[in-house]
């Protein structure tokens, strides 16, 4: 989506390591190519969302890609991606129904459609996505599995500022006051994760953990909670309890009041270890 930052640079470096380790012909040691797409996809924005003010510093994006040694930057115009009478879209109907999908109807139709189009154009062997948008990563993995798209999806850990704020192109929309309190989102997730790990024999319910997390997020000045959920990492189904072997993850979306730009919606997540 452009407005590239250190998080995107980390994805590029991961892709370069993978391309060096295994070339496009599958032989060890032959260097492959790294392609970055920059495309602000209008299909994944709702009618009341921030498409018009989404940052588009393309010259800076080009400079970052050059510094990181990207082989190809793909930057199509919307008219090149979508025909005027386009009538086909890709829909995922299970993992995308809750969380961001519930508050942003049609968003993941736009994500699945454009990502499948990009895969068709570029034909990558491997695609690297950040774990900050965990729901998007899960949806893309499901799409690739169900449509038999021959690409391996690699998730890369969320990259953060020194104060813990997850890197995001939307961070540049935060006012100074909003930026000052934004790290409390991750602090709330960390506190809840520590509580979950210390829970005595699993007797601390997930309902209580959700309540604690919601309370901490609500205490952030100017914060409006979109959702707080604890889910199975793969299916995104809400969990009612911990049990051995479950891969649980807490996901949140919060809108921070930001003077001059209006509310800025931030998402974050954290893996939870179930007590034994």
Round the mean pLDDT to the nearest integer and report it.
91
Spell out the CATH superfamily of the largest domain. Answer: HUPs
The CATH architecture of the largest domain: 3-Layer(aba) Sandwich
Give the helix/strand class. alpha/beta
Report strand %: 15-25%
Residues in helix, %:
25-40%
Order of helices and strands: HEHEHHHEHEHHHEEE
Radius of gyration: 19 Å
CATH topology of the largest domain: Rossmann fold
Tell me, briefly, the overall form.
Answer: globular
The span between the termini is 41 Å
Number of domains: 2
Describe, in short, the structure shown.
The longest helix is centred in the N-terminal third of the chain and has 16 residues, at 6-21.
């Amino acid at each position: 989506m452009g407005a590239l930052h250190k998080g995107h640079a980390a994805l590029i470096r991961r892709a370069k390591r993978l391309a060096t380790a295994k070339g496009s012909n599958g032989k060890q040691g032959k260097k492959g190519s790294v392609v970055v797409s920059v495309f602000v996809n209008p299909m994944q924005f709702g009618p009341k969302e921030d498409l018009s003010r989404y940052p588009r510093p393309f010259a800076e994006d080009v400079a970052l890609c050059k510094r990181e040694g990207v082989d190809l930057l793909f930057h199509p115009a919307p008219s090149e991606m979508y025909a005027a009478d386009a009538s086909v879209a890709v829909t995922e109907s299970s993992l995308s129904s809750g969380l961001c999908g519930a508050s942003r109807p049609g968003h993941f139709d736009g994500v699945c459609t454009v990502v499948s189009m990009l895969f068709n154009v570029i034909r990558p062997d491997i695609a690297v996505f950040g774990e900050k948008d965990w729901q998007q990563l899960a949806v893309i993995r499901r799409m690739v599995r169900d449509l038999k798209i021959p690409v391996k999806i690699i998730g890369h850990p969320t990259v953060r500022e020194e104060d813990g704020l997850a890197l995001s192109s939307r961070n540049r929309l935060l006012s100074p006051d909003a930026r000052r309190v934004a790290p409390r989102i991750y602090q709330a997730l960390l506190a809840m994760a520590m509580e979950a790990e210390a829970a005595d024999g699993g007797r601390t319910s997930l309902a209580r953990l959700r309540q604690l997390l919601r309370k901490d997020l609500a205490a952030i000045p100017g914060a409006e909670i979109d959702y707080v959920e604890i889910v199975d990492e793969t299916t995104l189904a809400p969990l009612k309890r911990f049990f051995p072997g479950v891969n649980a993850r807490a996901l949140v979306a919060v809108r921070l009041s930001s003077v001059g730009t209006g509310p800025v919606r931030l998402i974050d997540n954290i893996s939870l270890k179930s007590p034994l």
